[in-house]
Amino acid sequence: MGALKTTWFTKSTFKKGIVVPSLIFILAITFVSSFFPQQAGLYLGVVQEWIFINLNWVYVWVVTIFVLFLLFLFFSKYGAIRLGDNDSEPEYSFFSWISMLFAAGMGIGLMYFGVAEPIGHFSDPTFAALDEVKRAKNAQLYTFFHWGIHAWAVYGVVGLSLAYFTYRYRLPLSLRSCFYPILKNRINGSAGDVIDTFALCSTFFGITTTLGFGVVQLNAGLVELGLMKEAGFSYQVAIVFVIMTVSIASATSGVNKGVKFLSQLNIILALAFLLFILICGPTVFLLGSLSEGIGYYLSQFFSLAFNTHAYEPETQQWFFNWTVLYWAWWISWSPYVGLFIAKISKGRTIREFIGAVLIIPTAFNFLWMTVLGNSATWLDRNSASGLLSSMANRADELLFKFLDLLPAPGISSTLAIFIIFVFFVTSADSGIYVMNNIATNNAMKSPKWQMVFWGVLLGLLSLVLLNAGGLESLQTMTLITALPFSIIMCMFCYSLVKGLVIDDIYYSRAYSHAANNWSGEFWRERLQRILSFKNREAVDGFMQDTVKVALEELAAAFNAKGVTAVVSTKERPTAIALTIKHEQLEDFTYGVRTESKIISEFLMNEENIPGVDGNKTYIPKTYFGDNRIGYNIEYFNKNEVIADALKQYERFIQLSSEVKNELFTDNTLRDPQA
User: Fold this and answer.
1) What is the bridge-based pairing of β-strands 565-570 and 575-580?
2) Residue 509 falls inside a structural domain
């Protein structure tokens, strides 16, 4: 057994610290959900209900914060930073990139909920007191809200954090990398394994539940077309087998081949399906309602974003079942979708990434939900006599009953089934790819059997849960885990900001003050100083032998010109200052003090840089009478110190001569007791 285990891991790229605990947890949860589905569903349902009732505001706030955070980055100077080296180019064309992130993000959900959600809101008893028109408008509004910017902001935060730290910092493409500014090298230890284990389990459970529920919809569609006799488990086994076979083949061929091709194919088919419904449905009404719907959404944006229905207890259950559940679902899917989006986004700027991830899918979702959803509510009100509303709780069949009300239902239903199938394949193959990526900590190349392993495991466990009735329990547990992960995502935001600030300073920092106007004279002496990391005694010696001598010589020259100048000294920390006294103006002070500075641990461990004896060095740093930030002058000689002090004095005189600066330079305005 031990030899077999050794062979397993030496021939694979799996990381034992991630894969072993993940498989134990996945199999344990599957066992409980399969053999004790009612008990598991009962207890997990109680936990979920408690979270939704008492902590719904957490979901509302964190998702809204993600939206505002990404919008801030989009309009800030950080938006120009590239996800990769400064000269990086995108790996994929814009169309391929959008197609893949869209198909992985929520393609299958659009087919499942395109009709079901608007009809669900339209027919919900919570809004029974409203007239039909108001219910139809609200159905579109709430669907826009749930499938709009908020949903993609959740994916965007994870995807952007991963892409930034992976391609900018050259860290592995794994969630642990997003904690680098906080944990530093500890991300390579057990803390990093825990983070990636959480991501792997969340991804696996999310895809498993989606695969299980989606198979039921495919089964219903095939029954509607007469291609299958009934919605039975044996037929669902066949469907899962076909889906996973194609998904595994696509995943093993790589992102550049299978995943990319299927994503592009599906977006073209989806557009064709959308155009068919737009032409065959109430076209003029749909185009007009799209315009109204976008305007209504924008006007209600902040009200929707912060609303917890605290003053409307009669609508809170609807709020829990839809908005809170959606936010939890997007968060639970974000490790998977975020990882895949990050994988395909190298070379994009942050502004380009945010704009594409937030705006383009949202705009398409609005168009899709308007064409399908508003067609459904219009038909339900005008010609179907409430047929679709009566089927609101049968989401698996609703799309196909809707297509029966349009021309050529056989053709449209066949196209819909094919789109659902391909969307499933694109979700599954990208999911297989992402899970293997997490399990190997972004190994450069893995054996193809690992892709097969994840595909087979997904298919088998989804069928086990489907047959035992445990999918609902698994889905509930996935939604519960979204709460702690939402807090982790907030830490992603903090880490990302910290990284971006350092990034901006690093690339925008100019030469040190000592290098300005340096001609290169005495370069050997300067090289020696650059390679030396000084202790306090060495800097104090520089202060006495160079700074003090220079300032005293300069003070003597001022005094010879009739300008009173004095040099003062202080010990521990050593400080030497030249002060020129004034009556009307503020006194001019040019001083230098000894300051300590912490050295990077990486620099301490670098063998090719001599002279580093500890984690602290000392520098002579200037300070001024007006409390401006000073700078390091450790490379100056005596004449350069004199020249620097004169530059600062010339600046002081120039500013003092301007009337607009009297507030800063007029000494008569000062409170003597201040």
Assistant:
1) antiparallel
2) no
